[in-house]
Design a protein that fits this description.
The chain is mostly helical. It has a single domain (3-99), classed as Helix Hairpins (Orthogonal Bundle). Helices cover 71% and strands 6% of the residues. The protein has helices at 3-16, 19-22, 25-44, 48-69, 73-84, and strands spanning 89-91, 97-99. Helix 1 (3-16) crosses helix 4 and helix 3 packs antiparallel against helix 4 (48-69). The longest helix is centred in the middle third of the chain and has 22 residues, at 48-69. The termini are far apart.
Length: 101
């Protein structure tokens, strides 16, 4: 499946399960944070399957949240990239990027 086919399938699933229509963006944001916590746990445990599952769950949550907010996830990603692409700074020894002020 293409990304857009998957996105559409997720939206249809969320409507069928009445997530879209009953849940609020606040509730969906909390669900996203919960899934992100599961990702952190999988990374700490070096659980490859858990990492894949959690990243997928975070993506599902973000797709649903974008639908609720009438936003396009790809446009959000493009917007963020436009901000960071010319950013200057340096990476710390642990790989964390610190932008110039």
């Amino acid at each position: 499946m293409t990304y857009y086919e998957l996105e559409y399938a997720v939206e249809c699933w969320a409507k069928e399960k009445q997530i879209i229509g009953k849940a609020s963006p606040s509730t969906q944001t909390l669900k996203t944070a919960s899934e992100l916590g599961e990702l952190c746990d999988a990374i700490i445990k070096d659980d490859r399957y858990g990492q894949i599952d959690a990243i997928g769950d975070v993506m599902v949550c973000l797709i649903i949240l974008c639908r609720m907010l009438e936003l396009d996830l790809v446009l959000c990603l493009e917007s963020a990239y436009k901000v960071i692409k010319d950013r200057t700074g340096a990476s710390l020894p642990n790989g964390t990027f610190v932008k110039d002020e």
